[in-house]
Amino acid sequence: MKTLRIKLWRDLLRLRAQVFTIALVVACGVAGFVGEFSTYDSLQRSRDAYYREARFADLFASVRRAPLALRERIAAIPGVASVKLEVAHDVPLDLPDVAQPVTVRLVGLTGGSAPALNALTLRSGRLPGPSAALEAVVSERFAQVRSLSPGARVQALINGRRQWLEIVGTVLSPEYVYATRGGAPDDRWFGVMWIDADRIATAYDMRGAFNRLSVGLDAGAASGGPVLQALDRLLEPFGATDAVDRRRQLSSTIVDNELRQLEVLGTVLPAIFLLVAVFILNGVMSRQVATQRQQIATLKAVGYSNATIGWHYLQLALLIALVGAAMGLALSEWLGRALVGLYAEVFRFASLEYRMVPAVAAGAVLLVGAGAALGALAAIRSVVRLSPAQAMQAPAPPVFRRSLLERALGATGRHAAAMMVVRNLVRRPWRAAFTVLGIAAAVALQISGACWGDMIRFIIDTEFRLVQQGDATLEFTRPMPLSVVSELRRLPGVLQAEAWRNEPVRVRLRGRSVDTVLSGHGPDPKLMRVVDTRAGPVPPPAQGLRINALLARELHAMPGDLLEIDFRLWHRRSATLPVTDVVETLFGRQAYMALDAMNRLAGDGEGVNAAAVTLDAVATDAFYAAVKGAPAVAAVSDKAGTLQSFNETTARNLGFFTAVLTLFAIAMATGIIYNAARIALSERAWELASLRVLGMTRREVSVLLLAELGVELLVALPLGCLAGWGLASGLMTLMRSENIDFPAVIEPSTYGWAVLCILASGALSALVVRRRIDRLDLVEVLKVRE
Predict the structure, then answer these.
(1) What whole-number distance in Å separates Cα of residue 737 and Cα of residue 261?
(2) Average of pLDDT values for 101-120?
(3) Cα 620 to Cα 767: distance, rounded to the nearest angstrom
(4) Listed residue (605, 645, 351) closest to 478, CA to CA
(5) H helices present in 243-305, as ranges
(6) b or e along 322-340 (b: 16 or more beta carbons within 10 Å of the residue's beta carbon)?
(7) 365-379, 406-420, 452-466, 513-527, range with greatest mean pLDDT
(8) How far is C-alpha 83 from the geometric centre of its chain's CA atoms?
(9) DSSP conformation letters of 206-251
(10) Are strands 545-548 and 574-583 parallel, antiparallel or unpaired?
């Protein structure tokens, strides 16, 4: 057995370059599998622990105004364990040296202590206490971005009155793990502050009333569905807008979506790497066994059993796989920590640390080992079955037959070298096919990673340039008459102004119901438009209702269906409208109609509650100074600032993700191409040496070998581009949620970059193999067949 151990280490040393490239592909698969699944586990554990410690509520609802006396009736609903009622309003915040108004959500904090539900986690300073000054604690991330440490003072427009807020601490809240008003995380322009509940109730004339509530369920409650329905019925007279369970709470929904995306990416992409690694390992083992027929015959002749010889070669395969697995586990630690670091900047848990999951790591190693064993099994069985006398003989030469392709090339009078290349490809069609598929998989992986940048650019172009044509949007504290457009045009710097109406509604169809937003626009909207990603901007329907594809899928609706619409605020009227069209939009489940028709249905006058303006660049600061003091303005969004924040957040995260996948894809392509060339060289070394002796130059001999690789590469590239489109589309479909419709957008430059990277890795591998061809010892190689 000592002899076989020495042989094993000598084989590993001789195959070191191939061992490294195979191990690199295995490492990429293991790193992706372990790193992403461990990141998934770390996020999930941190989320669950934080939700549990902070007593995150199970149900949530918003109302226009409801009496505090309703608490007893809510608590009496079977399954309800605890109830939290509060007052919350979004207000403009005036920060020093910042021209644009920043929006903060003011939330009432009862008794100066953490509530029984949705408890705040104090990160610095203290909670607000009894004081003449209006004290506040602020969400930690917003405080960090805006340098708001305890002791800072800022001014807010609270119900039309400017008031100073004194920052006394920073906190985390389970309701705002992902802080947003309904879109991308925007810690520069949106934050949350908690102030004394009596002070905010007094400021908004809400003493004895509330407009937000959270409900905790009994531990034995099987589902929040019945409680949610009872809660919805109880709150309906008070203008309830969005009673939801934890799964649909905005921050929690976004965290869940990200976890699902991690699960998809951690399954699909690493599986491709592992399959390719098994294929390469099978090819290397097949060639290794084939070139050692005489050694195997000698071992069998001196008494080594088939099992012993088979175990020797199986050890070689397992060692290569384990080297790759060890490299992958080390790489997964770096990858996982980097991913967790990126997520920590977006999701604000009390604690978020990366921890490799031992079961996942062990499963990856076992999977790699099993794949290596399966890949090597066929090669081992083909030789150990031979008797020593058979194994001592050289394998019978293959029988060639002129294929249709050869006949076609012969008819055109092509060079004999081309015929040799074609003949070798036809001779081993399965190996050529697997090589092509492996290279195509590398191309597809790179495209599926790089297309995220294309998708983000498409989203930015659609949402910030086609949908939002204005420079700023305003939300009003209450419905305003249409004359507000004329008032906006009189503000300094305003060039154009346009208003529309958004109302929470419940849409019903054939027993299904969805709480959504109905938007009413003027006949020819310019500054805020509905854009179909397939057909471009679409005007409001002359009659009826236009819905987007996300809402249509939820309701199983199609053009011609009659939808029942219930207005949830103000007069709470109902109407039945036909669906005129279904449009493809990117975010949210929404419905659209003409503004005048919507106002007639709502029955509360000609009102609007949002507006967009275009601004003169030289008077932008004057405009923002004017709206900071406007009591009817609840929030202002500066498109340029929002776009900058969005780009800063996504560019870093997507840049990292794309770079990792690109490196993995290049490593995979290099492993496939290099090993294919090395195997071909080892198989045809005697032929190439013979041709050299007959007078062919090194260049001509190299062309004969590498031309096969070039043909396989050129065939693989278009297949890889097609597979990349399919893989990207499949991933986007798997990661689609009820509120986000990820588009499968791939720019020509992405295809071009993927092709160039794979061609570069192919050229590098070819150069390495070319050097080996040039260094062939003709005498030694030709002795092998004697």
Answers:
(1) 10
(2) 79
(3) 59
(4) 605
(5) 250-291, 293-301
(6) bbbbebbbebbbebbbbbb
(7) 513-527
(8) 35
(9) -TTEEEEEEEEEPTT-S-SHHHHHHHHHHHGGGT----EEGGGSHH
(10) parallel
Q: For 102-205, where are the alpha helices, taking DSSP H only?
A: 140-145, 197-203
What is the C-alpha to C-alpha distance for residues 472 and 376, in angstroms, rounded to an integer?
Answer: 64
Report the Cα 643 to chain-centroid distance in Å: 19
pTM greater than 0.70: yes
Using one digit for the tens of pLDDT, what is the confidence trace for 581-601? 999 888 888 899 999 889 888
Burial (CB < 10 A; 0-12, 13-18, 19+), residue 588, is middle
Residue 729 token pair = 């589309």
Q: Retrieve residue 341's tokens.
A: 């670091």
Assess whether pLDDT exceeds 50 at residue 112: no
**Closest C-alpha among 689, 718, 709, 713 to residue 701:** 689
Q: Which of 210-214, 277-281, 344-348 has the lowest mean pLDDT?
A: 277-281
Q: Roughly how many angstroms between the first and final C-alpha of the chain, as a whole number?
A: 29
Burial of residue 136 (CB within 10 Å: 0-12, 13-18, 19+) is buried
* For the ranges 10-14, 511-515, 781-785, the one whose mean pLDDT is highest: 511-515
pLDDT reading at 178 higher than 80: yes
| Residues, the chain | 786
The encoded tokens of residue 681 equal 């060289």
Can you tell me the mean pLDDT for 525-529? 90
Q: What's the pLDDT score for residue 139?
A: 92
Q: DSSP labels for 450-509?
A: HHHHHHHHHHHIIIIIIIB-SSEEEEEEEEEETTHHHHHHTSTTEEEEEEEEEEEEEEEE
Residue 602 has pLDDT above 90, yes or no: no
Token duo for residue 546: 């236009």
363/368 Cα distance (integer angstroms): 9
pLDDT, position 413: 47
- Computed from CA positions of residues 700, 702, 705, 709, in that sequence, does the dihedral angle turn out positive or negative? negative
Q: Are 460 and 654 in contact (CB under 8 A)?
A: no
Looking up tokens 């071992």 gives 299
583 beta partners: 548
pLDDT at residue 18 greater than cutoff 50: yes
Q: Which two tokens stand for residue 112?
A: 């100066």
Question: What per-residue string of b and e applies to 280-293 under the rule 16 or more CB within 10 Å gives b?
Answer: bbbbbbbbbbbebb
Per-residue confidence at 230, pLDDT binned at 50, 70, 90? Answer: confident
Q: Is 637 exposed, middle or buried (CB count within 10 Å of its CB: 0-12, 13-18, 19+)?
A: buried
CB 332 within 8 A of CB 34: yes
C-beta separation of 167 from 183 below 8 A: no
pLDDT computed for residue 174 by the predictor: 92
Across the chain, mean pLDDT equals 81
The H or E element that residue 567 is part of is: strand 562-567
pLDDT of 786 reads 43
Residue by residue, what is the 3-state secondary structure of 43-76?
HHHHHHHHHHHCCCCCEEEEEEEEECCHHHHHHC
CA distance 692 to 690: 5
